[in-house]
Amino acid sequence: MRQSQSFIPTLREVPADAEVKSHQLLLRAGFIRQSASGVYTFLPLGQRVLQKVEAIIREEMNRAGAIELLMPALQPAELWQQSGRWYSYGPELMRLKDRHERDFALGPTHEEMITALVRDEVKTYKRLPLTLYQIQVKFRDEKRPRFGLLRGREFIMKDAYSFHTSQESLDETYNKMYEAYSNIFRRCGLNFRAVIADSGAIGGKDTHEFMVLSDIGEDTIAYSDASDYAANIEMAPVITTYEKSDEPLRDLEKVHTPGQKTIEEVASYLQVTPEKCIKSLLFKVDDRYVLVLVRGDHEANDVKVKNLFDASVVELATPEETKQVMNCEVGSLGPIGVSESVVVVADHAVKAIVNGVCGANEAGYHYVGVNPERDFTVSQYADLRFIQEGDPSPDGKGTIRFARGIEVGHVFKLGTRYSEAMNAVYLDEYGRSQTMIMGCYGIGVSRLVAAIAEQFADENGLVWPAAVAPFDVHLISVNAKNEEQRQLADEWYEKLGQAGLEVLYDDRPERAGVKFADSDLIGIPIRVTVGKRASEGIVEVKVRQTGEAMEVSVNELIDTIRRLL
Ligand code: ATP
Ligand code: MG
Ligand code: MG
Ligand code: MG
What range(s) does the Aminoacyl-transfer RNA synthetases class-II family profile domain occupy (predicted)? Predict the structure, then answer.
């Protein structure tokens, strides 16, 4: 592509509101432009990188047996009502009405859409397993869109969904996707880590995030320095003290409180006011009992606790409330430091102390008349804390270190969360109706572009790895007005192209300094400069990443480039 005819608006100045390197450089080097907060245009160079990344993703997905389709961004609210997420997703879901006042959402992800599709089209076990994927635009009204492409409100995602008749089949596809993801990020040249992730609001169990290691990452990773153990910090608790009173629960009335209960529900069932409910709970984690008290005004803590315990509801309580109902000094309770309190109603909460009501060690039951002092010893629950650097690794191997990461991919065993809600069933070999088992697998494609830029840059600009670079070669004629130089450059622009190399040809009538500065900024792996020695058929070849430069006869140019790429 001739630069004189392209559209590569570079900037000399660092844009004021761009905080991180990738955002600054992608703007300055003419890859992207912002149109609204968290909404970006991919300029021609940005579009080329995007396409390179997408090509790698497609290759690996296809190789793993996934099949590409394309679903709409505009989704009828009915689908989201069927899954329940219309009500639970919150303000991140972009909602709109059509001219007939019908509700729609702009898809933040496509579980509903794909589940409905497969439900309607696949009726028999013979058509399963099935893995479908798309590369498509997503919308999320993020609270804090920032860092350019890293957290957008409109962004590009590769999302895959798999449908199965058995857990084993899901496991198999999950492992294939995990492999495919590792290949994709490796081929992009990234320094990344797969970590155990939070199964949060979607439910389900096995889930891993793929984290690109970077100081500006919003996630913290706890990893072992001596094994493969790595987890999102949200998922890596250390619980050091946990002891339940051996005293059996006495004089307690067992009441049936079927299913998962919020404080309000439990309170109303027991005919007490929610205010009177103790807002703290005991949990059973791997046969250990843990009392969770975290300050409600620390959103991050709430989320951690919620994730930690797979909780579906987090309720808040003031320290005063806790103190009152627990009938003890709140400060003495403190797993996490306790003038702080929260309530977590976990899916698998074992004992919920709610105004003298205690969750039984049995799903769907609570006890009335629990006395915290008598029925368990609060002070013995005092040492719950989250993992820290220097702790022994939970797998017993090595010591925990922390690193920051950018989440570029996420694989997830969904189970029947969507298929059940949306009635995605099939007939098994005996003609019985069975619910499909699902997995979902996302890659933030546009985020990935920024993550690569974040890892591959120096003080002069971007330094694209060859696999995703917008072009292979940046060909520059130092002086476009010099006939000899221009002719040689023109000639080799054609020849390199014919040899299958992708060439950006800076044929602009600009000063050499401007061209070199732009070239460094843009970061194409190989620069070929046609200058003073054009008459001898000698050009300079320079490697962007290492700065290594050499004079090469044009006869050896193609071989030299191939060797360096
Ligand atoms: P995050 O924790 O960063 O908000 P997420 O866990 O909400 O991401 P997923 O629902 O797992 O995101 O979506 C799959 C992938 O889409 C993520 O792994 C990430 O790479 C990408 N992604 C999510 N939100 C954004 C966004 N706002 N901008 C760009 N990419 C995003
Ligand atoms: Mg998010
Ligand atoms: Mg996440
Ligand atoms: Mg995620």
Answer: 33-465
pLDDT per residue over 256-289, tens digit each? Answer: 544 434 445 544 544 444 443 333 444 433 333 3
Phi, psi of 330 (to 5 degrees): -60, -40
> For a substitution probing ligand 1, which of 142, 190, 407 has the most ligand atoms within 8 Å of its CB?
407
Only one residue has tokens 């409600």, namely: 296
Nearest atom, ligand 1, residue 218 CA:
3
Q: CA-CA distances (angstroms) from residue 360 to 113, 291, 348, 434?
A: 39, 14, 11, 32
Q: Whose CA is nearest to atom 14 of ligand 1?
A: 442
Distance of alpha carbon 259 from alpha carbon 69, whole angstroms: 38
* Per-residue tokens: 494: 């054609």
Q: For residue 471, give every residue at least 6 positions away whose Cβ sits within 8 Å of its Cβ, in sequence order, or none.
A: 1, 48, 502, 503, 504, 524
Residue type, 225: D
pLDDT value at residue 276: 35
Integer Cα distance of 229 and 35 in angstroms? 41
Would you tell me how many other CB atoms lie within 10 Å of the CB of residue 1?
Answer: 18
Which numbered atom of ligand 1 lies nearest the CA of 408?
A: 20
> How close is the Cα of 209 to the center of ligand 4, in Å?
7
ipTM value: 0.99
Q: Whose CA is nearest to atom 24 of ligand 1?
A: 151
Which atom belonging to ligand 1 lies closest to the Cα atom of 152?
28
Cis bond leading into 129, ω under 30°?
Answer: yes
What pLDDT is attached to residue 264? 52
Pocket of ligand 1 (CB under 6 A): 109, 140, 142, 151-152, 155, 157, 407-410, 442, 444, 446-447
Distance (angstroms) between ligand 4 centre and the Cα of 151 equals 12
Closest CA to 551 of 95, 562, 536, 313: 536
Q: How far is the CA of 34 from the centre of ligand 4 (A)?
A: 24
Q: At 305, is the pLDDT very low, low, confident or very high (cuts 50, 70, 90)?
A: very low
C-beta separation of 185 from 196 below 8 A: no
Please tell me the pTM assigned to this model: 0.79
111: left (phi over 0), alpha (psi -120 to 50) or beta: alpha
383 confidence band (pLDDT: 50, 70, 90): very low
Distant-in-sequence, close-in-space partners of 278: CB < 8 Å, separation ≥ 6: 317, 321, 322, 325, 326, 353, 354, 355, 356, 372
Q: Which has more confidence, 361 or 212?
A: 212
Could you please report the per-residue DSSP string of 51-79? Answer: HHHHHHHHHHHHHTT-EE----SEEEHHH
| Closest ligand (CA of 192) | 1
Give the pLDDT confidence of 329-339 residue by residue, as tens digits. 333 332 222 22
Distance 303 CA to ligand 2 centre (A): 12
Place of tokens 């650097």: 389
DSSP annotation of 535: G
